[in-house]
């Protein structure tokens, strides 16, 4: 098919989602060197790179103290909300900010916007992206929700399983999320198997 174009979406690789953070994902650090290799490959191929960040207000129904499921994390402007310093995002990376609405969980990067206020869906369409490669944290929440939304929008989607880790609040959550994603047409990829067609 003509006019295929790949892009990389790095989901929520923020200090609070790494071990020691407010909502640390077990083995979260393992994704960083792998994502850095994907980032190099996509940048070298001249393909677009997007990075989402969870960016909550201090008071949100997403947090336990206000009736939600999670301890406070990724509060706007805090060090926990910063991207991990070892993540090598190139300057061309398009930042996607989500979770700013105090009444929304906003797990999916597709609930977020660019600095110009454009939705991720509109930005991908404008950039001509047809195939989204997704990695980051956490497999069973924001990665899952983003991959499923991308499929609903008709994009090809590859989950980079070597560059993703889950919270696993219940044992097996990440495995079940991967099954749900693949049942919805998401392909699985690793550094060994992914080939970028440019
Ligand atoms: C996430 C739980 C709460 C995520 C965000 O990025 O996967 N998980 N907020
Ligand atoms: Zn959150």
TrEMBL record:
A molecular function GO annotation: nicotinamidase activity
Pathway: Cofactor biosynthesis; nicotinate biosynthesis; nicotinate from nicotinamide: step 1/1
E.C. designation(s): 3.5.1.19
GO biological process: pyridine nucleotide biosynthetic process
Keyword annotations of the record: Hydrolase, Metal-binding, Pyridine nucleotide biosynthesis
Pfam families the record matches: Isochorismatase
Domain Isochorismatase-like: residue ranges: 6-192
Coiled coil feature spans: none
Similarity comment: family membership: Belongs to the isochorismatase family.
Protein name, per record: nicotinamidase
